[in-house]
């Protein structure tokens, strides 16, 4: 067991095996909130869990991944990316009891679940999908619900001290669904029968602008008529499914401890948990899901590949990371240049070896698109074929076209809006002219690269400052690729056109 690389998936696998050395099959779980569209971050959770399953398999142990949808949760607000103002009248109802705004599935929740299952299928990861609505309604949770009702006072004794004093009044771990209006967050339990697992409730609560209908009734906790509040719900799953491992964000440390305590109260053994850090903006702030601004897990897939997400999720999950546009390039480039002998490679490319693109990087494609200002994929494929071999590019065309699509989005979203022509002195423009003349005579990329250094030194300028000038003229940016390789990729005539266009803009 100690002969495997000291990578975090193996560390977690060892922890699981040490706690249950004789268990024939381990259960790994990850959760999904069905109150909105799944996204690459959602899949990232599945991928990280899969890494632990893969490590267990490498160690000769069997495991199963459960992807659990919290689709009994009520809809608290209309997602910003769903244009359906009529959902306002359904706020507070479980998402599987709200009409599908797209009209293609049985309910809002069923639609989001279907999207998740489709995204999971594309990863090739084997996982068992479970629905909270189904588990509460079809009897899967019945034994656990009855057991928790018999231990309800103990659960309350664990939870109430962790709550703010103003929130303790009238609080109860079970959330009935109102039989009249269908809402779940407006009901208040007045009495309960621990042996019969029934509750007497009133629909008199409120949240935001959503109010209860005033109905009062008594009903069983079985048959999908309600659910536990989420920390007890988490414990219920762990207990019923016998979950051995689940990872969660740093923001849920206290919640996981409380759920673990509830499982122990029930006589079960809580899972091994792994805490990961959350992603931040470039400025170091928490990423806002509501605004969708900047780089986030919701929109990573517009500019980055699944493989780049795999690497992002694999690298140092316990280390906080700041995400910005450059992050997408960084991680995608690293996946394209990672060698098969890298210990990370089997995890990033678990679905099969990466195509051989002859050293082509994502940043090369972005720089090409920027330099020639072309977004037609067929034209871009022709350019790439000149530098990396037409036969190689054709053999891997679907993969290359995916990279092109992402790069074009990146160019349109991040480069075009910020392109500018630098303000140069006559002496600096003269140095650019020397570069142009040298480039046209140089036989190869290395000679061009060396020539840039020579021109800078001849004029008493630090080479890094001259490179900055060239990047500004050619790409409208302060940094860029190796100039020699870039010239070879784009072509000398196109470089001359870029210099001429930048000079004309500077004169305008």
TrEMBL record:
Keywords: Aminoacyl-tRNA synthetase, ATP-binding, Cytoplasm, Ligase, Nucleotide-binding, Protein biosynthesis
Listed HAMAP family: Lys_tRNA_synth_class1 (MF_00177)
Binding site for ATP: 289
Motif mapping: 'HIGH' region: 34-42
Gene3D superfamilies noted in UniProt: 1.10.10.350, HUPs
EC id: 6.1.1.6
Protein's UniProt name: Lysine--tRNA ligase
Compartment annotation: Cytoplasm
Pfam families, per the entry: tRNA-synt_1f
NCBIfam families found in the cross-reference section: lysS_arch (TIGR00467)
Catalytic activity: tRNA(Lys) + L-lysine + ATP = L-lysyl-tRNA(Lys) + AMP + diphosphate
Gene name tied to this protein: lysS
């Amino acid at each position: 067991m100690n002969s495997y690389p000291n990578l975090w998936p193996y560390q977690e696998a060892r922890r699981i095996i040490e706690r249950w050395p004789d268990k024939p099959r381990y259960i790994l779980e990850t959760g999904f909130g069905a109150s909105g569209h799944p996204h690459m971050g959602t899949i990232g959770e599945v991928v990280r869990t899969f890494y632990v399953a893969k490590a267990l398999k490498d160690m000769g142990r069997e495991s199963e991944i459960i992807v659990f949808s919290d689709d009994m949760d009520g809809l608290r607000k209309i997602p910003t990316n769903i244009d359906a103002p009529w959902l306002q009248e359904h706020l507070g109802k479980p998402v599987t009891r709200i009409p599908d705004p797209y009209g293609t599935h049985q309910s809002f929740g069923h639609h989001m679940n279907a999207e998740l299952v489709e995204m999971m299928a594309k990863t090739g990861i084997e996982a068992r999908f479970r629905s909270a609505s189904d588990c509460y309604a079809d009897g899967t949770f019945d034994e656990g619900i009855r057991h928790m009702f018999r231990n309800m006072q103990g659960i309350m004794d664990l939870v109430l001290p962790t709550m703010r004093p103003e929130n303790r009044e009238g609080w109860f771990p079970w959330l009935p669904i109102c039989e009249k209006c269908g809402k779940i967050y407006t009901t208040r339990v007045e009495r309960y029968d621990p042996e019969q697992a029934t509750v007497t409730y009133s629909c008199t609560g409120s949240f935001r602008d959503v109010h209860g209908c005033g109905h009062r009734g008594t009903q069983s906790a079985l048959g999908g008529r309600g659910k536990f509040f989420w920390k007890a719900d988490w414990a219920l799953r762990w207990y019923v499914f016998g979950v051995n491992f689940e990872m969660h964000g740093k923001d849920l440390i206290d919640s996981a401890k409380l759920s673990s305590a509830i499982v122990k109260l029930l006589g079960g053994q809580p899972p091994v948990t792994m805490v990961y850090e959350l992603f931040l903006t470039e400025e170091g702030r928490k990423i806002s899901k509501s605004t969708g601004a900047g780089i986030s897990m919701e929109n990573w897939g517009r500019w980055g590949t699944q493989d780049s997400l795999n690497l992002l999720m694999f690298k140092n999950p316990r280390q906080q990371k700041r995400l910005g546009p450059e992050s997408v390039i960084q991680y995608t480039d690293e996946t394209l240049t990672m060698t098969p002998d890298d210990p990370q490679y089997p995890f990033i490319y678990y679905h099969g070896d990466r195509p051989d693109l002859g050293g082509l990087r994502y940043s090369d494609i972005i720089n090409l698109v920027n330099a020639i200002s072309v977004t037609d994929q067929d034209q871009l494929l022709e350019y790439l074929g000149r530098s990396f071999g037409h036969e190689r590019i054709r053999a891997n065309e679907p993969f290359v076209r995916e990279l092109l699509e992402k790069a074009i989005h990146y160019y349109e979203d991040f480069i075009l809006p910020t392109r500018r022509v630098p303000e140069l002195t006559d002496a600096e423009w003269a140095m650019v002219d020397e570069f142009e003349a040298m480039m046209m005579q140089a036989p190869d990329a290395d000679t061009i690269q060396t020539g840039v250094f020579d021109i800078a030194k001849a004029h008493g300028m630090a080479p890094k400052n001259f490179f900055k000038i060239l990047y500004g003229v050619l790409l409208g940016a302060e940094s860029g690729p190796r100039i020699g390789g870039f010239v070879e990729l784009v072509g000398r005539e196109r470089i001359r056109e870029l210099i001429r266009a930048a000079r004309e803009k500077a004169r305008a």
